[in-house]
Specification:
10 strands; about 30% helix; Acetylcholine Binding Protein, Chain: A; Methane Monooxygenase Hydroxylase, Chain G, domain 1; five-stranded antiparallel β-sheet; three-stranded antiparallel β-sheet; 3 domains
C-alpha cells in the first residue's frame, strides 16, 4: 500500500471532479489568501477528498409579518450541473453541516442543532434528471436590540404624555406643548425605525406597534 497523495489546484486539473453549482446563488467567489484555497487528497484505497473555500451570497425569501419577532428558514441548495443521475448521485456525509464555534451573527441566532439536510432530484425536460442536496438553516432574530432601541423609547414617550392628566385643566399652553412635542418625537422615531427595517409589502408587527402607540396619543 502506498501513501496518500496531497496536492492543490494543479492536482485537481489531473483528476475527475464533479461540476456543482448552488441553485439559489446570487454571487460567489473563491477565497484567495496567497493562493487559491483548494485542497485535494487521494487515499491509497482510491477515496478522494476535495475541499475548497467559497464566499457565497445566497437568496433567502423571508416572511417579515412578525418582524422583529420572526423566525426564518434559509436553504443552501447545491446540484450537479452537467452530470445527470446516471453518472453522479449526491449524498450527505454523516455530519452534513459543521459550524465554527466562533461563528456569531449580529442580528440573528443560528440554531446549530436544528439543521435539516435532505437529498432531492431536479428534472429538466431537455436534459434529464439531476441529483441535488439541500440544507435548511433556521434563524431567530435577536430581540434585546429592538426592545432597547424601539419599544422602550416609544413606550416611555407614551407614558410621558400621560403627564397631561395631572396638569390643570385650564393649563392649555402646557398641555398643548406636551402633546405636540410627544407627537413630533414619535413621528421622528417612526421615520428612523422605518429606515432601519427591511422593506416589505406586508404590514409587519413593528409597524403595527408604532402606529398603535401613535394612535394612543391622539386618543388622549
Amino acid at each position: 500500500m502506498g501513501s496518500k497523495v496531497v496536492g492543490l489546484k494543479s492536482l485537481r486539473d489531473l483528476i475527475w471532479t464533479p461540476t456543482l453549482f448552488f441553485i439559489n446563488e446570487k454571487d460567489s467567489k473563491l477565497v484567495v489568501s496567497t493562493r487559491d484555497n483548494i485542497y485535494i487528497q487521494i487515499d491509497p484505497d482510491g477515496n478522494v477528498y476535495y475541499a475548497l473555500r467559497l464566499q457565497l451570497v445566497l437568496s433567502c425569501p423571508m416572511n417579515l409579518k412578525h418582524y422583529p419577532f420572526d423566525k426564518q428558514s434559509c436553504r443552501i441548495r447545491v446540484s450537479s450541473w452537467s452530470y445527470d443521475m446516471n453518472a453522479l448521485i449526491l449524498r450527505w456525509h454523516d455530519e452534513c453541516v459543521t459550524f465554527l464555534e466562533s461563528v456569531e451573527l449580529p442580528e440573528h441566532f443560528l440554531d446549530k442543532d436544528d439543521v435539516i439536510c435532505k437529498a432531492f432530484n431536479l428534472t429538466y425536460e431537455t436534459s434529464g434528471h439531476f441529483s441535488g442536496l439541500v440544507a435548511h438553516l433556521r434563524f431567530r432574530r435577536e430581540i434585546p436590540y429592538y426592545l432597547m432601541e424601539v419599544y422602550l423609547p416609544i413606550s416611555l414617550l407614551v407614558i410621558g404624555s400621560w403627564l397631561s392628566f395631572w396638569l390643570d385643566v385650564y393649563a392649555v399652553p402646557a398641555r398643548t406643548a406636551l402633546g405636540i412635542t410627544t407627537i413630533l418625537t414619535i413621528i421622528t422615531s417612526s421615520r428612523g425605525i422605518k429606515e432601519s427595517i427591511p422593506r416589505a409589502s406586508i404590514y409587519s408587527y413593528i409597524t403595527w406597534k408604532t402606529n398603535s402607540k401613535f394612535h394612543q396619543l391622539f386618543r388622549q
